[in-house]
Specification:
Elements lengths: L1 H27 L6 H12 L3 H25 L6 H39 L2 H7 L4 H40 L3 H11 L2 H27 L4 H34 L3
Length: 256
């Protein structure tokens, strides 16, 4: 009985989230356009995530290289290190890990912020005053997350490759020019374009779920914490689903 209720509530939430996404696209192309709020959210979401993304990317590059190099040394294949690391980071590891880090910071922040506004009746006050709270609060945040995550992933991937180069330079005395010549020789548009495109969907999912959880927050101040927590969990699970679909489609069209 309990499991049946859980399954039912799961599908109900999927339907509500789908309707929420439909409302987003409907409001997105209607006037007025909140450009100032969009720019402010881009700054809050993008600029304030730079340090976290940079540190994450740097550690990714260091760890992958340190873990992989001993195995390649056993087969005398150290020269393949730049190629292997760059493909791994650009295609999959960089976008997914940075998106998960982004979800932990942004989805929880948006969920808590909108949840606080909901329980303190600020959203209700905006509706009474004639302001469209959905357009001002939700559309701007979802769009900002969608636009900022690809930029952050590109930055994180670049820093990750630099971190990998530092290990290669220390362990194998590989020059900067030689390392990145090998990186760019092996990378193709089939590696970069699909990986970049799917980060837009990652950002959209993170922003949408965070706004959804916060906008419909209930149970008073306790619900704010629940909204922030469930926003991170739900957006992280959705990222894996989107990533699987993206890899499956990429395999068909780009023949990885």
């Amino acid at each position: 009985m309990i499991r049946t209720i859980q399954i039912k509530s799961f599908f109900v939430e999927i339907g509500e989230l789908t309707y929420f996404a439909h409302r987003f696209f409907k409001e997105l192309f209607s006037k007025p356009f909140e450009f100032k709020e969009l720019l402010r959210q881009c700054y809050n979401i993008g600029n304030k995530s730079l340090l976290l993304v940079g540190v994450t990317g740097f550690i990714i590059g260091l760890v992958i290289t340190l873990q992989t190099r001993p195995t390649l040394e056993e087969f005398g294949a150290e020269s393949w290190m730049p190629s292997m690391v760059s493909i791994s980071i650009i295609r999959e590891i960089g976008p997914v890990i940075i998106a998960l880090t982004f979800a932990g910071r942004i989805a929880s922040g948006i969920g808590a912020e909108l949840g606080s506004m909901r329980v303190t009746e600020q959203i209700d006050a905006m509706e009474v005053s004639g302001t469209n709270p959905f357009k001002y609060l939700v559309v701007t945040r979802v769009l900002a997350a969608t636009l900022m995550l690809p930029i952050l992933v590109i930055l994180g991937d670049t820093i990750a490759l630099y971190g990998s180069y530092l290990i290669e330079n220390t362990k194998g005395d590989v020059s900067f020019q030689l390392y990145f010549n090998k990186v760019f020789n092996v990378l193709a548009f089939g590696d970069i374009i699909p990986a970049t495109i799917k980060t837009f969907f990652f950002g959209f999912a993170i922003g949408l779920v965070g706004c959804f959880k916060g906008y419909y927050c209930k149970k008073g101040t306790v619900g704010v914490g629940l909204a922030a927590n469930s926003a991170v969990v739900s957006s992280s699970m959705l990222l894996f689903v989107i990533d699987f679909i993206a890899v499956f489609v990429t395999d068909i069209f780009f023949e990885i």
